[in-house]
Amino acid sequence: MFAVFFSIEQVSVKADSTDNSVEQIKKSGKLVVGTSADYPPYEFTVKENGQTKYVGIDIEIAKQLAKNLGVKLEIKNMSFDSLLVALESHKVDAIISAMSPTDERKKSVDFSNIYYTGKQYMLINKKDASKYKTLSDFKNATVGAQKGSIQYELVQEQLSSSTLKGLSKLSDLVIALQSGKVNGIVMEEPTAKAYAANNSQLVAIDPGFTESSGENGSAIAFAKNSPALVAVANKTIAQIKKQDLINKKYIPQAAKYMSTSTKNNTMWSYWTYFAKGIEYTLIITIAGVFFGFILGTFLSLMRLSESKLLHSVAVCYIEFVRGTPLMVQVMFVYFGIGAVIQSLPALTAGIIAVSLNSAAYIAEVIRSGIESIPVGQTEAARSLGMSKQETYRYVVIPQALKNIWPALGNEFVTLIKESSIVSIIGVSDLMYQTQLVQSATYKGVLPLFIAMLIYFVMTFGLSKLLNLFERKLNHG
């Protein structure tokens, strides 16, 4: 019996000795916490001195955890359904985003003790208050829930007769509710009441969900086999509970931020958000066009090459990239390649993905332009003593560029719009900033309308500039 006890103790010590999660965080000097900052009062954004500030219950817990670890706190804001992928690929050290420790999630990550428990409510339109009161009233109705959340699973289990509408952002679900696309949204009690308190057209109700005690509540998630980090988190949670900080400090503080935000939520006061979004959108687009054009030129020449190897490599690359969605490519570069190169920033990952995607389309545009040049042009150049490289440089490429300029311009314009996809990995482009404004102002449609106008101005302006350059080429 002593031998068995000793053996078990040895295994436990050995397992703990291999866990260097705390040491790595202390060595880096920062705790990177992933969250989806559209879930007041847990985590949301406010504007303070023209800058975005993350606030809420979970943010305060993250601050306390970082303080206990003796490091700085870094918040990474992304869609809720991307958080677990970010944790497993080590893009974040922890998830503090009102996440419930379900049995399914426990297979992939470690959880701390539960730090807060809230009932599951339904957010509905005020005009439907007499129609929807209990779960049975939502039979054959359309119910919304955040993808990847416990609320999404609750709808599947307890509202099987309803149509489930899942979206990544809570702000998008609120838009769907107000526009009549869904009849109700499932969310935790504090969040439902927060939206209702800041929008007179909405009301929060308790429809009577049956909740599992084992999965009810919010906990901090860590990478699998991180007992040292879990121990520090549990100590932090115990400290917070002992002083009742959530009820006495964090919730009142969040309510104050929400009240202040509501009073100053005019769109003009958030112009810096849109300006920052334009800046990042243009950076991604210009970089994508530059690197995409260079790589695309090489790929087109490889595809036209007499070398079977170069031709095959180019064809495989072009067809593969064109046959997969840009969103998947962005996530693969950030979470896949980023798992190997952990220091890869989201902006860099976004530029790489957009450039690689654009190169495949530009390659085909350039190839079609080169093939449109009559063979006689090449033969005439070669008969004058020009080498193959000189023929391409001085005869074929200049004429091809004139022919492909309209198609090339369309690709540049399209890239401005497609760059919005990088918001899924937390890049502060125009779409990402628009979502922040939605979360901060509790307004869904107006920020989207402003974003549409900005995208139109950018694409229309670029189209006119490209047309001007095209006319100069034709007159040249």
Helix fraction, binned, reads 55-70%
CATH topology of the largest domain: MetI-like fold
Report Rg.
Answer: 27 Å
Could you give the order of strands across the largest sheet?
4-1-5-12-6
- In terms of structural class, how would the helical and strand content be classed? alpha/beta
CATH top level assignment of the largest domain: Mainly Alpha
Q: Total strand count, please?
A: 12
Distance between the termini: 93 Å
Which parts are unreliable, with pLDDT below 50 for 5 consecutive residues or more? Answer: 1-15
- Domain count, please report it: 3
GO molecular function, one term: transmembrane transporter activity
Domain ABC transmembrane type-1: 278-458
Membrane topology: Multi-pass membrane protein
InterPro entries: AA_ABC_transptr_permease_3TM, ArtM/GltK/GlnP/TcyL/YhdX-like, MetI-like, MetI-like_sf, SBP_3_CS, Solute-binding_3/MltF_N
Structure description:
The protein has 476 residues and is α/β, with parallel strands linked by helices. It folds into three domains: 164 residues, 3-Layer(aba) Sandwich (D-Maltodextrin-Binding Protein, domain 2), CATH 3.40.190.10; 86 residues, D-Maltodextrin-Binding Protein, domain 2, CATH 3.40.190.10; 208 residues, MetI-like (MetI-like fold, Orthogonal Bundle). The chain is 59% helix and 13% strand. The chain has 18 helices and twelve strands. The chain has a five-stranded mixed β-sheet. Strands 9-8-10-7-11 form a five-stranded mixed β-sheet, sandwiched between helices. The longest helix is centred in the middle third of the chain and has 34 residues. The chain is elongated. The N and C termini lie far apart (93 Å).
